[in-house]
Structures are given as structure tokens and as C-alpha cells.
Known about the structure:
The chain is of the alpha/beta class. The protein has helices spanning 2-30, 34-83, 101-113, 130-144, 152-166, 170-178, 207-222, 241-245, 258-268, 292-299, and strands spanning 91-96, 117-124, 182-186, 194-198, 227-231, 250-252, 274-275. α4 crosses α5 (152-166) and α5 crosses α7.
Amino acid sequence: MLIDLRYHVVTLVAVFLALAVGILVGSSFLAGTSVERQVARGLEQEFGKLRTENHDQQITINNLNDQSKKRDDFDRAAAPMLVDGRLLHNRVAIIQTGDYSEATQSAKSILEEAGAHVASITTISDLNSETASDQARRAVELITGGPANSDPVALILDGIARSVVAGTDLRTMNILEQKGLITKVGKYDHRVQTVVLVGGSKEKDLQDSQLNDLALIDKLQSYGVLTIVAAEPAYAVTSYIRAYHRKNISTVDDVDQPMGQVSLVCMLAGETGNFGVKKSADRVVPAYLESKEWRIKSRR
């Protein structure tokens, strides 16, 4: 609704400019005539109506923005209560493949509110750039002790998946970090069977990056990950969600929003599906929140 109103305001401004131009052009042809005065009077009246409508629309937009902020404040206050204790004793790893670090932090915060232990956060740089390709070859040579093969990116993704899941190859992660291919936070010393993948990009049309994500999902599953949930922020310029659907994993497309964060926790607790606000979503929120189980729990 807010977007439509903003477009309406832009349209009104365009109309005002057109009217102003019309008055100037018309006056050059009709100067000094009664017709000019009649046209000018009519245009002024119309201009006044549009200006009043524009003012009213701006008030409506301000009111809606204020209501939206208050709802967001309520949602953020309520989200921790909705997920409290849902992920106790769960060990989770987060891998960020996109460039929305704030979405990663949103995921981390709500997982910890739900009682999960976030063992590690791994951020993968853009492996498709020319600089990253050179560094990837050098990293592979250090890791393997031999020349890099024709697809160093595949070996890099394999090393990341193995290190995150198995927790037995910190040397590989250290080399990748030294070469600027990843950043890492946390510990990589225990097995992890649950991974949250945070994608989405601020750039347009990054098909290669999405393909890397799909390859990484295959690698994670090959090393024994039982649950992979993919997430991204609601306003990602390039969405990875439809690409993730090709791997038949659960997704949430608004993890930067409280309802998306609650959906993330519910999926890690066992619910499956595609949740969020985009056309690629099946539902806005998990069915758990509408269930008898939830109603009983919420009364306790």
C-alpha cells in the first residue's frame, strides 16, 4: 500500500509540472485575451485541487508509516516470546553467501533467543571475481600441496562445507581466510548437522553466485547435514529463493523482519516450507503458530 501511495505522489508532482508548462505555453498564444484568463483560471483551480489532494495523501502516508513502525516495534518485542526455548540444545552454523550482513545478524540473534548455540558464522566472498579466482587457485595449491585443477571454486566450496560440518579442518579455513576468500567467527571443532544459509545480493543478476550456493548445498548434504534452511532479507535486490527451491530446501525470504525470524526458528524446529512476503513464498508464517499445540503452550 505504501509503495502505491508513493507512486501516486510522484504522479501528482508530474501533473503539477505539466500544468505549469501548459500555462506558460498557453499564455504565449493567448496573451491578453479573455480565453487566456478563462484557461488560466481553470488551470489554477485544478492545480489547487491537486495540491490539496497531494497534501491529504502525504498525511495518509505519514500516518501509515507511523502505524507500520509501531507494528514493527510490537513484532520485535513479541518475537522472542514466540520462539522461547524452541531450539534448546541445537547446534547451528550460519554461512553467509550474499552481502547482507545485517540479515546474518538477524538470524543469529533470533536463533540465540530460541536457545540455539550458533557455533560459527562463515562469510564467503564473491568467488567469481577475477581477484577471487586468482586467490582461490593459490589457496587450493596451499591446501592440496599441488597445482590447482580447472575448478578451484568447487574445491573451495568443498573445503568450506567439510570444515563447517565435520569440524576437523581448521587449517583449510585459516588458509581461505588469509587469502581473503572467507571471514569466520566462532569455532570449527565439533560436528554440525544444522546450517542456515543466508543469501540474496545487493547487486543485480548474479547467476554465478546462485549456482555456487546450489553447489555448496550439495557439498553440505554430502558431509551429513540433516537440515539446511536458506534465508535472505525481504528487500534483496537479487533474490536467491527460487534458485534454492531447486534443491527442495525450506526457505524464508524476510529474515530481516520479525515474522521471518520466527519462521526461521520454526523451520529449524521441524516445520518445512517456503515462508515470507514474496511471490515465491507458500505462506507468510508457519502453520505452527495457528496450531492447537501453540495455543496450549502460549497459555502456560
